[in-house]
Amino acid sequence: MNMKPINTQIFVSPQIHPQDLAEIAQQGFRSIICNRPDGEGADQPTFEEIEAAAKKFDLEIRYLPIVAGKVRDEDATDFGALMETLPKPVLAYCRTGTRSATLWSLSQAEKQPLADILSQTKAAGYDMAGVVRRIANGGRTPTETAEDARYDVVIVGGGAAGISVASSLLARKTDLNIAIIDPADVHYYQPGWTMVGGGIFNAADTAKTMGSLIPKGVHWLKSAVAAFEPKDNAVILDGCRVVKYGRLVVCPGLKLDWHRVEGLVETLGKNGVTSNYRYDLAPYTWQLVQEMQGGRALFTQPPMPIKCAGAPQKAMYLSADHWTRTGSLGNIDIQFMNAGGVLFGVKDYVPALMEYVERYGIDLNFFHNLISIDGPAKKAVFEVKEPDKDIRRMEVDFDMIHVTPPQTAPDFIRVSPLADPAGWVDVDQSTLRHTTYDNIWSLGDVMNAPNAKTAAAARKQAPVVAQNIVSDIRGHSATAQYDGYGSCPLTVERGKIVLAEFGYGGTLLPSFPRWLVDGTRPTRAAWLLKERILPPIYWRAMLRGKEWLAKPEKISAS
């Protein structure tokens, strides 16, 4: 038997036989639903045979036969009613298990988010792409037209990557009919939150209304994406609206998975627990830093990949600098709790960072991953996975803790046909075109190219994607390539930054002559770039399609 769990309440399987019932009962099942009509196959036992065997083991059993490929709306309703009343766990079966998985998916449409339904069925080995519109429509067959809107280019995500690529596209081809799909009202300059947490920027200066930034002429669809149907060139929105496209750009960012750390959500913003990864919490970071006169301060970093790998350290260095200036550093025990095994992934920048680690008296704790937190008790628990050692857990007291949350691709991406096995959008790392669907591109934090997930990376990627889409529209092959560029301005003290700029494989890719900015050393010039120059470049250039220091690199002829 091949019984696959969708969750603890429902398992599905291919055809079962009377002799299987003893094992089914032994494994703890209390109910069975048959979704295969009698007589569908020559070697198929009848429902009465299965029912008679089930009764010997006191198993509840129901017959809800479904003709292959013809799951009706009322069938899903009936299946949902059985799931409400039958004792759990339930085993549902048909010829392959697909009809049963489909019935369960449709029955849960108004009870669970679409991404959760798709995730559970996918984990069980069943692809629900064929009924995704019905699930999005509350489990009912849509009666509206199969197409609510159509655009030349549809962009999923209105963050730094999405707005930039829209502007870069229009700069190259002004007559494109473009839509951006994003439900958010506010657009944030997220690189500024480190500076908010360090008392340098005001939080309000890092936010603008989404409507004020959408390029003129671009349609803004203020909705969430429910699913993708790339074979039909369609994006399904919440409410089952269908948007068709000629070309698709996927850049919704990533998901900050706060819930993966037990107890974290309940204590964020109080009890000394903060994070610069949230707009409303960055000011609390600065408040805690100012108030702290002594005790232990923890700064955590989860496993990669994460948005801006240097951000956990930036918060730590700026905090330590403030404590140095106020004379309280000697009373504060600073601990860097890093799930990884190195301070920074590009070795050329490590010596300069280590000088500050030593200056501030920071203890480095590698292979320490935060798994739970008790805010009122001010205790954090870390899982320690050191090489060649047994995994252990360690509890650490704190007075202040800056948490970097675990990060994943958004749920609707992870369960989509666009995702690689790890859940990220699968692209060619040079052209940023999808590896399977040739009219889809991706950029920003959500795609799987092995580059740093930073706004600076998106600034370089947007022109590449725009150039290659326009080339495709004109019937040409890709003409621009992305070299993996990413930048991480490491704020090691107030007034100085180690400007890390690198590409694929850790290759250094400095934007300025070494005499102006030596990226491997802390400089005031790099600080001025971060504090004074980069914010206006972001708002006035990058988001408006002005590609200063970001012209796409041409693909060289072989």
UniProtKB/TrEMBL annotation:
Residues 151-269 form the FAD/NAD(P)-binding domain. The keyword Nuclease does not apply. GO terms for biological process: sulfide oxidation, using sulfide:quinone oxidoreductase. It comes from the Bacteria. Keywords: FAD, Flavoprotein, Oxidoreductase, Quinone, Transit peptide. Its cofactor is FAD. Gene3D superfamilies: FAD/NAD(P)-binding domain (3.50.50.60), Protein tyrosine phosphatase superfamily (3.90.190.10). InterPro entries: BLH_phosphatase-like (IPR005939), FAD/NAD-bd_sf (IPR036188), FAD/NAD-binding_dom (IPR023753), Prot-tyrosine_phosphatase-like (IPR029021), Sulphide_quinone_reductase (IPR015904). Residues 6-109 form the Beta-lactamase hydrolase-like protein phosphatase-like domain. NCBIfam families: TIGR01244 family sulfur transferase. This is Sulfide:quinone oxidoreductase. It comes from Roseibium marinum.
